[in-house]
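Consider the tokenized backbone below.
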């Protein structure tokens, strides 16, 4: 059986051309681009909480990195470097090889170098720190939304939560939903290009990890304002066979509170809506105007039906210590 350092050397040590010194020493050495600020984020994925224990390890490797790059995307930062730490209950080289394959596939696609990390024995979990760069004063933040700004979201939030419900046997999805939803859950696409395109356009931004309403609420809380969402302006769900009222209700709950989507929710002045439409066309990514920032209690998010009546939901998103 391979030991800890042999596993690291075999599966996780790759060339790191952007680092002064990569894996193999007590620390990595980095030289940030002159005149750029560093954006740093850390996320942990725990088996049974963030992913099902039988998740395909290659998909898990991709997702573990993608969710961290999504945080950099939400700031408009350019991804540069990542560290990887993980606990494994036992050495399963086939599992490790597949995980590393997915992890480095994501790293290659988004141009990041893996500069170090750690391994230990314990319950399965993965913790990644990602570092990116952004011009001083240009980073997208949560505290810049203004009353009157439009609220936008990318992609189709809700697919990942529907995919999880499908895998757990809580809902039966008609074709082609299972493939689309499980793919959204297990292989999210961090919106790095979108975040960079929104520099100088978005007044505030966040990635949708815990649920659309919850994460939009974080923007509103930090910006000292409220939000009004129009139900009819939410992204369309995938086309498929006729589905019943129960599935429509579940799909809506997943859309507003499901989380795990890693789309970007952002605000921008209405005068820039044409610029946003051009970004959507250039990136071939749907961007949806779903509401407005309004005066009101900081952090309050209200959803309105077509008759302008508020719609209540049992929850707005995921909370590890409340769910």
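A designed sequence for it:
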């Amino acid at each position: 059986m391979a030991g800890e350092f042999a596993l690291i050397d075999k599966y996780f040590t790759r060339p790191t051309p952007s680092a002064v010194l990569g894996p193999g020493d007590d620390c990595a050495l980095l030289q940030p681009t002159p005149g750029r600020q560093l954006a740093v984020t850390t996320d942990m994925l725990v088996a049974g909480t963030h992913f099902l224990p039988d998740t395909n390890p290659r998909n898990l490797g991709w997702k573990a990195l993608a969710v961290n790059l999504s945080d950099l995307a939400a700031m408009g930062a350019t991804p540069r470097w990542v560290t990887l730490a993980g606990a494994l209950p036992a050495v399963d080289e086939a599992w490790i090889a597949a995980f590393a394959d997915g992890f480095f596939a994501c790293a290659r696609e988004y141009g990041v170098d893996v500069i170090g990390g750690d391994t230990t024995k314990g319950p399965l979990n993965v913790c990644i720190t990602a570092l990116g760069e952004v011009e001083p004063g240009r980073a997208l933040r949560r505290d810049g939304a203004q009353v009157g700004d439009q609220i936008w979201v990318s992609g189709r939030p809700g697919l990942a939560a529907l995919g999880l419900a499908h895998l757990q046997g809580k809902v039966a999805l008609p074709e082609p939903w299972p493939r689309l939803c499980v793919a959204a859950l297990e292989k999210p696409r961090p919106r790095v290009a979108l975040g960079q395109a929104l520099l100088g356009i978005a007044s505030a931004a966040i990635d949708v990890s815990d649920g659309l309403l919850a994460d939009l609420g974080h923007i509103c809380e930090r910006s000292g304002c409220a939000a009004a969402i129009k139900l009819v302006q939410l992204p369309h769900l995938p086309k498929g066979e006729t589905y019943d009222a129960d599935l429509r209700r579940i799909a809506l709950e997943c859309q507003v509170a499901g989380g795990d989507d890693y789309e970007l929710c952002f605000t921008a002045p209405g005068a820039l809506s044409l610029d946003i439409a051009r970004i959507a066309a250039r990136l071939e990514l749907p961007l949806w105007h779903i509401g407005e920032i309004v005066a009101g209690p900081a952090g309050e998010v209200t959803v309105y039906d077509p008759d302008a009546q508020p719609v209540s939901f049992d929850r707005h998103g995921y909370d590890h210590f409340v769910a």
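The CA atoms of residues 121 and 300 lie 43 Å apart.
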